[in-house]
Amino acid sequence: MKKLILVALVSLLFQNASGQIYHVSASGSDRNAGSSTQPFKSLSKAIAVSISQQGKAVTIEIAGGTYPLEKTISIHSDDYKASSLLIRSRENEHVVLKGSEKINPTWKTFRGKILFSKIDLGENFDDLYLDGKKLHMARYPNFDSTARVFNGTAGDALAEDRIKTWADPSGGYIHALHEGEWGDFHYLIKKKDAAGLLVYEGGWQNNRPAKMHAEHRYVEHIFEELDSPGEWFYNKKTKTLYLIPPSNQDVKRGTFYITRHTELISIRGSLEKPVRHIKIQGIDFTETSRSFMQVREPLLRSDWAILRSGALFLEGTEDVSVTDCNFYQLGGSAVFLSRYNKNVNIVDNHIHDIGANGVAFVGDPAAVRSPAFRYEEFVPYEKMDMAPGPIGKNFPQDCYASGNLIHNTGTIEKQSAGVQISMASKILVRHNTIYQVPRAGINVSEGTWGGHIIEFNEVFDTVLETGDHGAFNSWGRDRYWRPERQIVDSIVAARPGIELLDIIDPIIIRNNRFRCDHGWDIDLDDGSSNYRIYNNICLRGGLKLREGYNRIVTNNIIINNTFHPHVWLKNSRDEFSRNIVTTAYAPILMDNWGAKIDSNYFLSEEALKNSRIANNDVNSNYGDAGFVDEQNGNYRLKINSDAFSVGFKNFDTDFGVTSARLKKIASKPQIDALAVKKQHVISDQTEWLGATCKNIENLGERSAAGLHNDNGVLLIKLLPGSIAEKNGFKKGDVVIGLNNNVVKNVNDLQKIYQEISLEGKIKVDIMRNQNAMQLDISLKD
């Protein structure tokens, strides 16, 4: 409520502001005075004049038209003298800011359908647009709008025979998914050496190094791959642009633009000297350069790396609002809030078809106590800063992303989200509709510093190109966390409260509707702690809690799926109660069951029976929940519903965008028929060296072990004194190889073992705590 009042006050400030008004028109001149009759021609000129007005409230009104920017418009605190600044389009007129430059190629026939033009485009450009439509660099495989990953990938993209056909691939790019499908890699090809091998640089876009995915890869901007309508190639050495015209289009009459900038408007101040009271309203931001090769800064203990950049970039600001704008056809992020930003409101914008994040809130790692940056890194406990919370305030706080329609993001950078939050405090993410994203719709990195409220969002069609994520996704690899559960258990027992030093305020997830067909609807991963999750509808992927502390999950509805508890810690204080659940729980490696798993309502007797593990759900019930209209997605309970017996309560289901403009064009998630009779399947098991083991069968088991694929055999029980126990195996290990032979399943394990067992000693490759290890074992007692 305080945030809503603040938004109203900020709007009132601009409405009541009296002061200078400057006008901008594409037909004006920067030698004019900026009046309504003598407008400026460029927004940059109007801003330069406006911000110099000492103590004045200034309005810049822009006439309808397209405004290509010669350079990024910069507003810096050293130059900002105005008391407030409103930048808006003229009422009912369409204003477009472009990070691109018009070019005038003279086309001639090269050979076949290929045209060429001798034209000097310089070094700093990345994308080519024809009449407002993006054309694609020459690529293999060719662009396919229906392909799931990267719009087309192929395992032979870097095949030796293909590389032989490339005379000079320098300046080309390699794009690939991470081997585990956790994100992406990008490389710039420098040359082909004397041996015919590619020399390239890059791969720094992912903070958990691995091989490129064997299948999901493609190459672009290589002349020999110019073979499809709408593709182009530019030879910088000869200054020649080549193009195969799009089908049924006369390019000689077309208008061409090339991108020049990754940022259109940059507002930069600091914690000590912020830029204050700016409002941007009714502006289109489009055609910025792709930024994937500049993505190098690692986020804390994750597989993420970022670039602090966006079409609209904010750093060191207070009381800024961005409303009713459109962001589209962008090479990187749309809106990026870096380091200190307070009371910044991103409201009712349409963000779509962009290369990276929709809206990102990312603080300064220098504000984090005892930070570590790689998954496998940690600060020794004896050297750790034990003070709670951040150092200083150089991070986004009390900011607001509401009512935004965000879709088709991450078109090039798969390590991205509709809304991304990292090293921030008290961010309100409310009434957004988010879909068609390669990874999570909403992502919260690490626990620093909590206090976020995620509410009334509609998030679906997520995790479309990556793996092991959710529509909502988080991790909490904070100061206390280690991959080894036993170490975490012992440290938290010895130092109670250490687990909440970074996540000092609970994160609330409430009144949202999530759907993920390729992961979990709500996925709290490694160490995510201090969450309150209630009044949500999970439509497809269920709700997962991996190890962490103090998660209270109540009054949620899980349709056609269930609760996924993974590898919990001792005395976690977790609770799961008063939820409606369709199928039986799907626990993985659960030795500890938190504070309370009870008083839930199941949609079948079988689901309840198979969920009563370790004395849980003693007071739970089952039956027909009595939804008002489940076929059309109305999961409110009828007045006589038996599900009220466990304490469940109906809740507000006003999901997604609220503005009339965006509601008209926003998509809706698919609603499936209720599958109540889904059977609980008990997996086949076998014995090996005194250990009970089974195949990897689902995404949950793959996620818990940190596997890159479904190969491997999971050890679920070890007999005391067995060969397996004596040789150092542990419950939860996954055997992936024997003597350098790949173990895909139980049959492989048994077959390979029979062939090598007479050797007496063997090497066993395993995954433990999401890390690869090798054990030298003796087969003798």
Automatic annotation (TrEMBL):
Pfam families: DUF1565, PDZ_2
Ranges of residues in domain PDZ: 699-770
Keywords: Signal
The keyword Signal is annotated on this UniProt entry: yes
Protein name as catalogued: PDZ domain-containing protein
Species whose genome carries this gene: Pedobacter chinensis
Signal peptide region: 1-19
PROSITE patterns associated with the record: PDZ
Entry-linked InterPro entries: DUF1565 (IPR011459), PbH1 (IPR006626), PDZ (IPR001478), PDZ_sf (IPR036034), Pectin_lyas_fold (IPR012334), Pectin_lyase_fold/virulence (IPR011050)
Keyword ATP-binding tagged: no
